[in-house]
Amino acid sequence: MAEELGLDYEISTEGYRGRDACSPDFLALNPNGMIPVIDDGGFILWESMAITLYLAKKHGGPLGPASTEEDGLMTQWSFWVMTEFEKPALELILHRGGLPEDKRDESRAQKAAQSLRRPLGVLDHALADREYLVGGRFTVADLNVGSVLNWARSAPEVLSSFAGVTAYLDRVRARPGFKALRELQRGAKLPSWVEKRVARGAGGS
Ligand SMILES: N[C@@H](CCC(=O)N[C@@H](CS)C(=O)NCC(=O)O)C(=O)O
């Protein structure tokens, strides 16, 4: 979102060590011991979708809502992707690559992939007559939905049945902000404690 808005920002993982081992300074920022959390000139906010909605509204422009109704729809799609989509999508990516090979269970991945069919159908229907979810333009709703929907690429056997969603995901992935994020992730050196947690099969996202 910071990239899409052209904001100056700095990424820090100082004090973050995974939920159970964060420094007291980090826990003062986010008592859940999780990322993301932002410090916006002393204003602290956690929960990823709350953060992106906040930034979109604060900085205005086409990414944020132009009316209370648009605000409602952007909130709706953000809550929807978290509550109806994220859990099986996370299970899917963990068991198709996120976990060490000996901890992966393909039958769990297949079950998760199948349970994405219903929400994918809802999204496909919503996109039948439009390119973006709200207001005929790319908004925070697409940024939030797209970021989680992207995980469904690990289930091509299911995603390929939804042509509208597939084309939509391609549009979202072509955004400069999305590309910049991929570059960041590719270039980021994982701290050694993350590698150890993954090796232990600690899970998480
Ligand atoms: N609901 C939270 C979830 C955040 C979350 O799952 N963060 C993961 C990294 S992506 C984390 O910090 N996990 C730490 C752990 O599980 O120890 C959000 O959307 O911000």
What is the helix/strand order?
Answer: HHEEHHHHHHHHH
Which sequence of strands runs across the widest sheet? Answer: 1-2
**Strand-residue fraction?**
under 5%
* Total count of strands: 2
- Examine the secondary-structure arrangement and name the CATH architecture of the largest domain: Up-down Bundle
Q: Tell me the domain tally.
A: 2
Structure description:
There is one protein chain. The protein folds into two domains: 2-61 and 189-200, Glutaredoxin; 68-179, Glutathione S-transferase Yfyf (Class Pi), Chain A, domain 2. By secondary structure, the protein is mostly helical. Strands 1-2 form a two-stranded antiparallel sheet. It has helices at 2-5, 24-29, 48-59, 68-98, 106-115, 117-126, 140-149, 156-159, 163-173, 176-187, 192-200; strands spanning 37-40, 43-46. The longest helix has 31 residues, at 68-98. The chain is built from eleven helices and two strands; from the N terminus they run ααββααααααααα. Helix 3 runs antiparallel to helix 7 (140-149), helix 4 (68-98) runs antiparallel to helix 5 (106-115) and helix 7 crosses helix 9. The chain is globular and about 45 Å long.
Topology summary:
Layout: H1 2-5, H2 24-29, E1 37-40, E2 43-46, H3 48-59, H4 68-98, H5 106-115, H6 117-126, H7 140-149, H8 156-159, H9 163-173, H10 176-187, H11 192-200
The chain binds glutathione (GSH).
